[in-house]
Amino acid sequence: MAWRDSRRNYSRLLLFISSIVLGIAALVAIYSLGYNLQENIDGQAAELLGADLELSDNTPPTPKIAALIDSLGGQQSEERSFASMIYFPKNAGTRLAQVRALEGDFPYYGQLETTPATAAKSFRNQKAALVDQTLMLQYQAQVGDSIKVGEVTFLIAGILTKAPGQTGIAATVAPSVYIPLSYLTQTGLAQKGSRIVYRYYFKFVPKTNIEQLVKKIEPTLEAEDYNFRTVESQKQDTGRTFRDLTRFLSLVGFIALLLGCVGVASAIHIYIREKISSIAILRCLGVKASQAFLIYLIQISGLGLLGSLLGASLGAIIQQFLPAVLQDFLPFELETSLSWVSIGQGILLGVIISNLFALLSLISIRTISPLNVLRESFENVTLSRDPLKWVIYALILLFVFGFTWLQMKKWTDALAFTVGVTFAFLLLTAMATVLMWAVRRFFPSAWGYLARQGLANLYRPNNQTIILVVSIGLGTMFICTLIFIQTILLDRIKLSTDGDQPNMVLFDIQSPQKTAVTALLKQQRLSVLQSVPIVTMRLEQLNGQTSTEALKDTTTRRWRGLFSREYRVTFRDSLISSEKIVKGKWIGEVKDFGGVVPISIEDGYAERNVINIGDTLTFNVQGTILTTVVASYRDIDWGGVQTNFLVLFPKGVLEEAPQFHVLLTHVPNNEVSARFQQTVVQQFPNVSMVDLGLILTVLDEISTKISFVIRFMAGFSILTGLIVLIASVLISKYQRIRESILLRTLGASRRQILVITALEYFFLGTLAASTGILLAVAGSWALARFSFETPFNPQFLPILIVFLVVTSITVIIGIVNSWGILSRSPLEVLRQDG
Amino acid sequence: MANILQLQQVSKVYRSGNRDLKVLDEVNFSVETGSILSIVGPSGSGKTTLLGLCAGLDRASSGSVELNGIRLNNLNEDQLADVRNRYVGFIFQNFQLLPTLTALENVMVPLELRGEKNVKNRALDLLDKVGLADRGHHYPTQLSGGEQQRVSLARAFSNQPQILFADEPTGNLDAETSEKVEKLLFDLNKEAGTTLVLVTHNLELAAKTQRIVRIKGGKVVSDVVVS
Q1: What's the structural domain count of chain A?
Q2: Residue A372 to residues A36, A272, A276: CA-CA distances in angstroms?
């Protein structure tokens, strides 16, 4: 019976279910991506690290570590990496890059991919460099040109296209330049104060038990604060990172599915209303309420399965494209293969969720009386007092919670997501309802008939205005929020360097160079806005406890890096504009140094590491032990071009300690910046510079790449909204035909019907887009005000474009789908009567 | 008196599967301006098809239909719509009001489609004539069947048609309401001097018209002037 009843409605029923196809497709694609990522990480973990073992730290190896390295044997490579200015003599281009000085045959697994391929090996034996392709492109350099790193000019042996473990994003932030380690000293860049990371790579004979080896050396490494990575740890770290990514993406996909399900629920509601007379006839013929319910449940379940199968197939196709979307974030080549587990999961999810949402309307079948045959009255079939409805709502919420919990594994997160999603849906519904109420309340009676009819159609019986506003509005909200946040971030940096604020930082200036660099600035008519001395030190003891003792103390959770990190500290007698004391007392000067030094630390850092006011911190300042006491906490605004410090010393203590300097200046334009950078690089190759232009460029590139991924995911939500739109237009076609034909009968021309239809979808698109934009504005304002603490100046042009695109697509879909109605003969209205 | 409607050798053939179905077979008749006529016949006899052709809702397969001197055969859909809007009024068995518009707005539609401004007062007058002046702001679902048909009557007369086609106008109403609606229909028609063509099963109603055209199997089998 379920089959027989569905035959004439088959295409329409299929449309209902098409709303969930995209959601299922998104989830299957993302699940498959997750499985593929895991498989690829497992398969390529060795290539990710490039070695069996890596030891690293930002200090040269201590004698104990040096001895350990010697004792480990196997094949060994050494790398020292640091940020430095590079210089292209051909066109005088300068740029901050990550210089990697390499010795040995690293990588042992995978390879440095270069053009020409031979360069990966040949550069090691000559005064030659491998330069990242982004740098080569930016400075239009060619293989065979020169590049100057510090005091040494290298021949560019090849273009670096891929290095082990490096992502496209990392290359954007800090493009790499590989040079042979043997030339590092000659470059003059390895000086005191330079932030060099020392890495040692090892390859052992096959079948060496690496984990056992690590266990053996771990105590020494820990005691000397040296880090290590193995293939296994790399596998876990990378796996964890990408699990987080796929979890996030699958939640976004799940939202698209939920949207689709709301569409299904709404469509089934209309379907059942239209079926009331058929159901009433069946009831008259002796069919029980439960049997009638089952007839339609079977129909919907069958279609849910079909929709899920379609979705899963589409998902399998989409997953082929996901690696292209994510390529900038992947440190390896992603090979895709079909994951049957993912497909199975997607189908199961689709069937369960489409049934749950359909049940909301299906249960009303139980209450349809055979009396409806005699007197059809929709009002008789009401759901609101059916307690079963609330049970189904509860089941849906439980299902959303359960699904999220399976993704996040933390019930608090799952609860937050469930509450958040429910709130977002309710908020959008409320917004849409308020907007619709406002339109109705202030209905423009003075408008022409066509416009009024178009607007009135939003309230037609069985309209799907709310669901469309929610689904299209949600997609619009995603995209607009993204644009706003991008703008807020970029504005924030621009704002912080308006006027005479610093927009260029010169760092790694050695003490003897300071006067000369200052003179050079003056010569270029640039002023020194800030001169900051920096002293490096390490923390030896906290309240008399060494690192081992302090970390063993299980009563407090402290970060391991508290002791292992190198502290870069400055000293001054006053606070700067980006910091303020939030607790304790700021002491700016120590007159008679000899005792305990009062210092100030950042409040967040103190909180994370459980450091209280009055705690004693003992520092090792390059051999000299210095005892300090925490006198105050500072709140620091890290935004903008500024030098800020976790630990701040008062004047009168560190003046004689070995130090280097950072200078801040303001360059008026790009031309002056480029000219100044060239001069500095030529005269002081060890001095690095960052200018606002570079920060903005990098930030812009990163945010564009991230927003592409988010837009791709938001696209599912918008597309689902559009499918719901198509489905709803087709579902209400019967009613539209009647109305349009009636208008034709009364003498409306084809153009008039077309205008009414276009206006209806224009109003719908406008309502949906403005709901999304309004919510995005409110959300972004809150983010700007409370999180970024910056004024919110939304850019109107991109928003206008989003608004126009969303509205146009809605209008086009509406008209295309209603096209058939325009060509129907008016006589049909009489046929329906006769 | 001149004829407002003239049918000559009108046939209508529908394609059903792979065979032709002749619904109307060489029908000839004419309607005098201002007269009241009814078309009666059993179900499937072709009366609705005939009404559709007369009102310019469909095109004849052969023969000619002339309405108010305009030959409908050669007009396109938009031209036909224009003819309907200028000269024709309709009343349907199922009322056919636009559910998204109030009673008043439904009455205003034909005038507004014509592009006329300030039509509210005229629509209110008509609603008053059908006894629904105070129900103008109600939507069709808030009205009874009889009230909906009265709104439909007001709408039919709103564009001051030359000819009014009524398809089973009381078919969905009880006897008492039917009587009221019939009276209103004839009264309004008399007042406006409109030609009225009624399609009905109801012989009692047909007897109230001046002329009865009986149709069977797609042919006019009798054409009687009621004395």
Answers
A1: 4
A2: 55, 13, 7
Give the Cα separation of A78 and A202 in Å (integer).
9
Tokens 């895991």 map to which residue?
Answer: A38
Is B51 within 8 Å of A829 when comparing Cβ atoms? Answer: no
Which domains, and CATH codes, for chain B?
A: 3-225 (3.40.50.300)
pLDDT interval class at A834 (50, 70, 90): very low
First to last CA, chain B: 18
Distance between CA atoms of residues A79 and A72, nearest Å: 17
- Residue A513 lies inside a defined structural domain of this protein: no
Same domain? A20 vs A114: no
Closest-CA distance, B131 to chain A, in angstroms, reads 23
User: Is residue A219 assigned to a domain?
Assistant: no
DSSP bridge partners of A79 = A102, A199
Does any CB of chain A come closer than 8 Å to the CB of residue B119? no
Judge if A810 and A768 occupy the same domain: yes
DSSP string, A645-661: -SEEEPBTSSTTS--EE
Task: Give the model confidence (pLDDT) of A311-361 as tens digits.
Answer: 899 888 888 877 777 777 776 777 778 888 889 988 998 888 888 888 888
Length of chain A as a residue count: 834
Q: A570 pairs with which residues across the strands? A: A648
SS3 A433: helix
Look at residues A350, A377, A409 and tell me which one is the last residue of a structural domain.
A409
Task: Give the count of beta carbons closer than 10 Å to the beta carbon of residue A658.
Answer: 15
Q: Are A645 and A721 found together in one domain? A: no
Long-range contacts of A374-383 (CB under 8 A, 24+ apart): A376/A276, A376/A277, A376/A280, A378/A273, A378/A276, A381/A273, A381/A276
A769 with A742, same domain? yes
Question: Are residues A268 and A176 part of one domain?
Answer: no
**CB-based contact B99 A453, cutoff 8 Å:** no
Q: Is A216 among the domain residues?
A: no
Given the structure tokens 């000899």, which residue do they identify?
A594
Residue at A113 is within a domain: yes
User: Domain range for residue A101?
Assistant: 53-207
Same domain, A778 and A809: yes
ipTM: 0.80
Tell me which of B12, B70, B86, B100 to substitute to probe the interface with A (most A C-beta atoms closer than 10 Å): B100
- Cα separation, A609 vs A602, whole angstroms: 11
Chain A interface includes B34 (CB < 8 A): no
